[in-house]
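Provenance and format

Records in this collection were gathered into a single text stream. Each protein contributes a sequence line and a token line. The two records reproduced below are adjacent in the stream.
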Amino acid sequence: MNNQNETMEIDLLELLGAVINRIWFVIFAVIIGTLSAFLYAKFLVTPLYQAKAMMYVNNSSISVGSASVSISSGDITAAKSLVETYIVIMESRKTLNSVIEEAELLYTYDQLKNMISASAVNSTEIFQITITSADPKEAELIANTIADVLPEKISDVVEGSSVKIVDYAVVPASPVSPSITKYSVIGFLIGAVISVGIIVILELFSETIHSESFLLQTYDIPVLSVIPSMQDSNKKSAYYSYENKSNKTKREKS
């Protein structure tokens, strides 16, 4: 018994034709995907707001423990390093517990820390504190409480420090997430990919013989006969019937 390796040849044009023939299915899936993502982002995803406060670091000579650091106004690298030090102090348990007590929050230290992010503004001595919360007023309250508490906490650790508030946070007017447009685009793409994938899979595993060329390319066997389409047969029968009737009428008249 001879073992034959079965191979499947994929005709991209045929697959494209199958997708075009079922384009209604693709359109339906895209509409469902886009609408589902839109409704999910609009009504099921909790909107998040961000409040931001900015602070300025101004030190000509400071000391941390026994180490002494001197910086000038043009020393951007040292200033950035100092900002990172202050951010670490801000995220410390001692500072955030004071913020929780001052603002009368119901969060734990870990929960509050996950709501906070901070970074230097364009590598300058100014750093920005960002609070993300589902409540816009709460985000503003936390940001401003940190801005009030932080200078004292920094001065307890870094001698000779000078931290000033550049800008207090305000209540955010609109959420930063979710992006309804982004969700809708993702839903559109998911609907398109799934629908096209289903069509391609059905086409690849279909055992229906579509044409003589399909039979020759797939199985490499000769075609002995072809059964005509019933529609074509009906058309031909109707044509022959009409032609015979016309000839008969002409003969009777003559």
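Adjacent record:
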Amino acid sequence: MGILSNIFHKIFPSSHPAAQNSSQAAPGAQQRAPQPTQPPAQQPAQQPQAAPAASTPAAAPMQQVDVEAVLNNMQQQSGQQLNWRTSIVDLLKLLGLDSSLQARKELAAELNYSGDTNDSASMNIWLHRQVMNKLAANGGKVPADLKD
């Protein structure tokens, strides 16, 4: 995931599973693609090996990252008055990411937005909520009022 993984990398430390998983998502997909061409006898041996690896990161999200504290700290250091709590544009700016309409449309596509991307106000509200939900789902401690 392009933009969402960039958001994860800016908020989560590099050792956090969410940052590691988002950076390994594309290479992992490429590594799995050749597997169907291998003889079936090798596949069962590889699948059980993948299961323990998948269960190891599942335990790691218990190490939560306080998203609010991270973003407040970033805002203090930036000296900018950005309303990251309600604005996806300000959140992206705070993270040093592209906040253009085109970038937000790309993020909407990544997150499977089904609404009208030309209605940027509705899309922006939805995007902010979804990003906060994704952060919470991946080990971020997000204030309840910022997620579903």
